[in-house]
């Protein structure tokens, strides 16, 4: 049953008035290596929320190496934290969740989408929550959009031959065909090419005017550029791989994609925006989800303390107001609502497509 939202300020005021010790959270994120910039986003977001709420943070390095889960879990338990957030890699959780469960320490991942890990957690009763969307969530919103807005259009599906691109596109194709929409054209593009003129011409020959592309941002940008150069009208839709650097070939206006929130929302939006401007940080990547995770735990701790329930129970089924919008975890510890939104590239940035035009 969904509980009513209780604000963080009120909950922490109640905690502060008791003899409870200060709330301490672990932030698990990479500090070195190729994922360090993502780790910086996690730490900045968590610090921003923690500073406002007077929460102590313990930063734990995440190397994303196989077998690292038990060591990370040991560090978390030794720090005597209430909960842990971050976890950009599944390797950081494998083998470690049983120890966290033993100590009743919930773990909230901002990134891990591996279905098997969540299935194992559900079977074993591990306190693992996922703030990241599932692969099925991406397929769902893309399929629903195509069926709603492209039902009468000649649709093509293109993928880049990678595991991710192929699986995403095939899942969309199966879903469309199950519901009566058969693409007029399917193909596999050669990624990393300087031009895609032959592909664009094959799309034109097949009569396709609307195309979903399961590929990376630059390949999509090249296809859009070449179609425009050939004066071939193509309406292009892609997945969340579009959330990448706009280079070397910039996207053309009108390219659509699905994406997660990167603009502060809700009651805390103004304060968070002002703080980001002051600190000269952009709300990129994992910054806002990390901020949200900290406030979610703070709210849940207040509920747990006030109602005398375990923290894991307080996290499930409660609607939390966060900087990325209202968040509710199901009893299965997944997001209750699809977090993806349809966006369109316009003058150098992705902007949400108004609900009435989606």
Features:
single chain; 358 residues; alpha/beta; Rossmann fold; 5-stranded parallel sheet; 12 helices; 17% strand
Write the layout of secondary structure elements.
Blueprint: H1 8-16, E1 24-29, H2 36-53, E2 56-61, H3 69-78, E3 83-86, H4 97-102, E4 107-109, H5 115-124, E5 128-130, H6 135-149, E6 155-159, H7 163-178, E7 185-188, H8 197-206, E8 210-214, H9 217-229, E9 235-238, E10 256-259, H10 269-279, H11 287-307, H12 311-315, E11 319-322, E12 325-328, E13 341-346, E14 349-352
Parallel strand pairs: 1-2, 1-3, 3-4, 4-5, 6-7, 6-8, 8-9, 9-10
Antiparallel strand pairs: 10-13, 11-12, 13-14
Structure characterization notes:
By secondary structure, this protein is an alpha/beta fold. The protein has two domains: 192 residues, Rossmann fold; 124 residues, Rossmann fold (3-Layer(aba) Sandwich), CATH 3.40.50. Helices cover 40% and strands 17% of the residues. It contains twelve helices and 14 strands. The strands form three sheets. It has a seven-stranded mixed β-sheet. Helix 1 packs across helix 11 and helix 6 packs across helix 7. It is elongated. The protein starts with 7 loop residues before the first helix and ends in a 6-residue tail after the last strand. About 3% of the residues have low confidence.
Strand content: 15-25%
Main sheet? 7 strands, mixed
Strand arrangement, largest sheet?
Answer: 7-6-8-9-10-13-14
**Count of helical regions:** 12
Alpha-carbon distance between the termini? Answer: 31 Å
- Count of discrete structural domains: 2
- Could you say what the CATH architecture of the largest domain is? 3-Layer(aba) Sandwich
Stretches with pLDDT under 50, minimum 5 residues: 8-19
Shape: elongated
Structural class: alpha/beta
């Amino acid at each position: 049953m969904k509980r009513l939202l209780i604000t963080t300020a009120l909950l922490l005021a109640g905690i502060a008035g008791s003899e409870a010790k200060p709330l301490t959270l672990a932030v698990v994120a990479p500090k070195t290596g190729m994922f360090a910039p993502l780790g910086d986003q996690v730490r900045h977001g968590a610090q921003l929320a923690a500073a406002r709420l007077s929460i102590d943070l313990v930063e734990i390095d995440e190397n994303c190496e196989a077998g690292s889960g038990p060591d990370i879990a040991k560090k978390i338990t030794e720090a005597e934290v209430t909960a842990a957030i971050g976890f950009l890699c599944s390797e950081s959780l494998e083998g470690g969740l049983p120890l966290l469960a033993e100590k009743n320490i919930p773990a909230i991942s901002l990134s891990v989408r591996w279905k098997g890990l969540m299935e194992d957690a559900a079977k074993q009763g591990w306190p693992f929550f996922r703030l990241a969307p599932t692969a099925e969530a991406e397929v769902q919103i893309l399929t629903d959009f195509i069926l709603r807005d492209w039902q009468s259009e000649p649709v093509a599906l293109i993928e880049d031959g990678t595991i991710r691109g192929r699986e995403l596109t095939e899942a969309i194709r199966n879903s469309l065909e199950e519901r009566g929409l058969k693409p007029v054209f399917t193909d596999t593009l050669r990624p990393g090419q300087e031009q895609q003129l032959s592909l664009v011409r094959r799309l034109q020959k097949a009569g396709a005017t609307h195309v979903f592309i399961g590929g990376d941002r630059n390949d999509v940008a090249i296809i859009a550029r070449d179609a425009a150069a050939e004066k071939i009208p193509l309406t292009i839709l892609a997945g969340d791989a579009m959330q990448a650097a706009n280079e070397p070939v910039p996207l053309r206006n009108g390219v659509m994609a699905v994406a997660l929130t990167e603009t502060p929302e809700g009651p805390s939006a103004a304060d968070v925006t002002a703080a980001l401007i002051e600190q000269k940080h952009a709300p990129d990547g994992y910054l806002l989800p990390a901020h949200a995770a900290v406030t979610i735990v703070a709210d849940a701790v207040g509920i747990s303390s006030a109602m005398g329930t375990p923290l894991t129970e307080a996290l499930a089924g409660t609607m939390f107001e966060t900087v990325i919008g209202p968040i509710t975890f199901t009893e299965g510890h997944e997001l209750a609502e699809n977090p993806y939104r349809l966006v369109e590239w316009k003058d150098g940035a992705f902007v949400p497509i108004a609900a009435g035009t989606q």
